[in-house]
Amino acid sequence: MTESNPSSLVSAHKSSDSGLQIHLHPLVLLTVSDLITRHILRQRTGPIVGALLGQHNGRDVTLEHAFECQVIGGEQGRVHLHQSLFQTRLMQYKDVHKGPALELVGWFTATPPTGPDTQHVPIHQQIIQNYNETAVLLAFHPSKVLAEAGQGGRLPFTIYESIYESTKGAGKSGRHDTDGDQSMDVDGQETPSDLKFRELTYSIETGEAEMIGVDFVARGGGNATNVDTSTKQKGKGQASQAPVTEGDSKVVNSQQEAKALNDASLLSPEDEELITSLTARANAVKMLHSRIQVLKAYLTSLPPSYLTNVDEDNGLTTKEPTSPNQVDTNHVILRSIQALIHRLPILIPADGTAFAQESMAEKSDVALVSLLGDLTKATMAMREMGKKFDLVNTTRQRKRAGNRFTQAFGDVDDLVEEQMAPMG
What we know:
The protein has about 425 residues and is of the alpha/beta class. The chain has helices spanning about 25-40, 85-95, 120-130, 140-145, 210-220, 230-240, 245-265, 270-300, 330-345, 350-424, and strands spanning about 20-25, 50-55, 60-70, 70-75, 80, 105-110, 135-140, 155-165, 175, 195-200, 200-205. Strand 8 and strand 9 (about 175) form a beta hairpin.
C-alpha cells in the first residue's frame, strides 16, 4: 500500500482513553520483517497484508503469530481479502495452535508514518464484520526504517484500534465491543459516524523459545550475503553455448580465484559470535549516548533560575519559561534524573585501590588457568610426538637389521657356490 496520501483517519483521542493492553511478541516482528524483505527483493507489486493470531482475555490482547494473506482487487481500486483462501488458512493455523487456542486478533500492513488511510478501511471492515469486532491494526512504517537506520529508537511499528466517531459536532465515540450505542439526535435518529483509528501503547513480551529464534537471527545476520541469481544463471547459459577460448579461460580462472578468496573470507562461527557481541555492545553504547544527550538537552532548556520566581501572594513557585527556547519545568522528570544521579555512586566502588587489586588478582587467576591449559596441551602434543618418533625409529631399526641379515646370507651363498664349482 502506498505512502503518499496523508492520513485523515487517525483519531484525536489519546491512547490512554482505551483500556486495551497489547502484548507484542518478537515472532510477529520477525514474520512481518521477513515478509516485507521478500516482497521488496522479489520486486512484487501490490499491498502487503497479513493476519495476526493471539489471545484475547478481557482487556489484554497478545499478538503471537502472523501469516501472509492474499488480496484481490475490487471496485474503485479497493482491495479485499480472498475470503475462501483466508478462511482455509485461518482454520489451518487454529488447528495447529490449539494449546493455548489462538484466534484472529488483527491484521498488519505497511502504512505511511501518518497512519492508515482510506485504502486500508475495506480490509479492516471485512475483518471486524466477519471475524473479530475488536481487531487491531499493526502498521509498519518503511520510511522510518530508512530515516532512522543505524540509530537506536522506537520500533517502526504502530498499533491502532478502530473506533466510531460522530461526524456531527463532538459526538460520542465508542469501540465496537463496548460502546454499541451511538450518539442520538433530539428526534431519535442516529448520528452518522465514521470509522477512525486510535493509536495504542504496547509492550514487548517473549518466551524462551522466541529468544532462541531471535538470538539465531541476530547471529546469522553478521554473515548474511546477497547473491544475484540472475547473473549466475545467465553466466551458466553462456558458458554452455559458446566455446571456451584462451581469453575466456583466463577470465574463468580469475573468477575462480575471486570465488576462492570470497570463500576464504567467510567468517567462522567464533568470528560471527564475536562480531555479534561487539555489535550489541556498540549499539548499547550508542543508545546510552543518545539518552544522555536527551537528558542534557532537557536540562539545558530549563529556566536558569526558575526556583527564584516566587509569587508573593501565595508563595508558590512559578514554572513559566523565560525564553521561547526554554521548556516548562517538570519536577517529576527532575526527581527521576536526581534519583538516577544518586544511583551512580553505587556502580563506582568505594575503595578504588582495593577494587583494582581484586580485579588484577582475578585477571591473574584467569591468565594462570589459561596458561596451565596451554601447557597441558603442549605436553600432550610433545607426548604424541615422542610416540610417533619412537614408532618411526623402531621401524627404521628393524628395516636396517633385515637388510644386514639378507646381506650376510647372500655372502654365504656365494661362498658355497664357489666351493661347489670345482666338484662339478
